[in-house]
Amino acid sequence: MRLWMIVEEPFLQALRTRGELIADGRRVWRDFRHAYRWMAEQMGRRIGPPPRPRAYPLWAWAQWSGPNRRPDMRTGGHKPRGTQCYRLTLDVPQQQVVLSDFSDWHMVLNNGYLARSEAEADAFDAELAAAGIPKLSRDYGAFTARVEASWERVFDIDHASLHPAWNGSPETQSIQATFWRLGKDQVRKVERFTAR
């Protein structure tokens, strides 16, 4: 499966030196650790256990923005402005990859309920309000299992056409790829650029 990563020099050097990389989560922001662990659990269920205990996902793009599958190095936002970066073109076996919707992933990061429509979101918010629980809560109490079950919708990458106003459309959808291990033999192309 063709994938793309935007990385900085230390990542590329580590990959060249070690021959492979497996993420350990040290660079994950504390507020996002729960979401990353959840993704790791999902990966374990979908593609098998990590190559070592407590491994975290590696992330790449399967589709950067709609029909533009690979990230455009001329656009901003990849890394801080002026940073020397590399766009890696990868070839990772499809059975080792979990695809998910990039926009929907933000609800997981923010510990929110992933609704598919405004009506569904409003109904869930009303239930929370009736129970005295704020939206985007740290603790949903009896609603936690339901919130986390809604997150599995991130893996429904064909949903965009169901509700374009909420979830984008095939023309704008971005699909991220997670996998456990990257070997230097999986890198097909390295392109250097300066982040804008």
Descriptive report:
The protein is an alpha+beta fold. The chain contains six helices and eight strands, in the order βαβαβββααααβββ. It has helices at 9-18, 33-47, 102-109, 118-130, 144-151, 164-167; strands at 2-8, 20-21, 58-63, 84-91, 98-101, 175-179, 182-183, 187-194. The strands form three sheets. It has a three-stranded antiparallel sheet with strand order 1-4-8.
- Give the ordered list of helices and strands: EHEHEEEHHHHEEE
Q: Trace the largest sheet across and list its strands.
A: 1-4-8
Number of domains: 1
Query: Helix/strand/pairing class, anyone?
Result: alpha+beta
Low-confidence stretches: none
Instruction: Calculate the mean pLDDT score and round it.
Output: 91
Q: What order do the helices and strands come in, and which of them pair?
A:
Blueprint: E1 2-8, H1 9-18, E2 20-21, H2 33-47, E3 58-63, E4 84-91, E5 98-101, H3 102-109, H4 118-130, H5 144-151, H6 164-167, E6 175-179, E7 182-183, E8 187-194
Antiparallel strand pairs: 1-4, 2-7, 3-6, 4-8, 5-6
Short description:
Helix content is 30%, strand content 21%. The chain has 6 helices and 8 strands; from the N terminus they run βαβαβββααααβββ. Strands 1-4-8 form a 3-stranded antiparallel beta sheet.
Question: Which terms summarize this structure?
Answer:
6 helices; alpha+beta; three-stranded antiparallel β-sheet; 8 strands; single chain
